[in-house]
Amino acid sequence: MMDGMKKIIVTGANGFIGSRLCLALVNNGYQVTALVREKADCSLLSNKINKIFMNYNDNSLLNELLDNHDILIHSAAKTKGISYKDLTDTNVELTEKIIQSSNQSKNLKQFIFLSSQAAAGPGKGNTSLTEIDEPHPISWYGQSKLQAELILKNTLNKDWTIIRPASVYGPGDKDFLFYFQFIEKHIAIHPGFNNKYISLIYVDQLIDLILKTILNPKAKNETFFASDGHTYTISTFCDTLGLAMDKFVFPISIPDSMVFMTGAVMEMIGKFQNKIPILNKQKAQELRQYNWLIRNIKAVELLDFNPKSNLLSNLTRTYQWYKKNKWL
User: Fold this and answer.
1) What's the start-to-end Cα distance of the chain, in Å?
2) d(CA 152, CA 154)
3) What is the pLDDT of residue 263?
4) Quick one: pLDDT band at residue 125, thresholds 50, 70, 90?
C-alpha cells in the first residue's frame, strides 16, 4: 500500500469515471468513501465500495467527512443542462461549497479536481493546446468548469491538483455510446465535411494519471491535460471502431449547419420529454470545431505518465462491455 493507509473521499462516485476510479483506488490499497447523491443510480459502483448517500446541503456531515479524509477527488459534475445556471448549480456552486468545507478540514491534505478539456476550449489551426495557453471555453459546460477552476485556485487553502481530461471513453460511458450504436448499423457519422481533430483518453489511462497525482509533490498546485498522447480524426476513430466491432461501415458526412440544427431539434424534443439529449445545441457547437487537440507532455515529464494502451484494444474492450451489459 502506497502512502500508508490513506483515506480518500470521491464525489460523483456513481458516475462513469467515479465508479471505475473508486474500484482502482481500493485495488491500490486506499480506504475509499464514495459520495453519491440521494436516489442516485449506483449500478456501475462496485459493492466493495463504502457508499454514503449525500445531501450536499448538510454542511455538518460534509465537514465531518472531509475532516476524516486525507484526499478529496471531486469528480461530481453535470455535463449538460437546459441553461447555464443549470450547470453552474453543480459545477460551480457545489464545488464552492466543497471548497469551503475543505478549508475547515484539519486533516485534508489534497484536493484533486477533475475538470475538462472543455474548460480550455478548442485549439487553433493544427496546434495542440498546452496548460499555459489562455482558456477560451465555448460551451456552458466548459465555462462552468473554468469558473470552478478559478474559484479553486483563488480560495482553497489546501494543496490542489486540476486534471483536464480530453474526451474520455470506456466501459460505462454513455457519451460515446451513440458512435457504437451507429457502427452497429454499419454507419459512421462524421460531423462536417472536413477532418475534425480530437484528443482522446481511455478511462483506465485517466485513472492511472489520477493515481500518479495523489500526494505527489510534483502535482502540488498544478494543472494537467490528460490524453493518450495521440492525434486522431473523427474518421480514424470511426474506422478503428469499425475494426473493433468487426463491422463494415459506410461513412456519412453531415454538414455542420445540419449538426447544429439537429441539436436544436433534439433539444426541443427533450424539453417535452423532460430530458436533455446528448446531442443538443451546446454539444453541436463543440462538434462544429475543427481542433480539439491537447498535449500531455507536462504529465509525461512531471508525473512519468505513460499511457501505453492502443485505441483498437481499448475500443474492443469497451464494445465487449457494452455487449455483456446489454447496452448494445
Assistant:
1) 38
2) 6
3) 66
4) confident
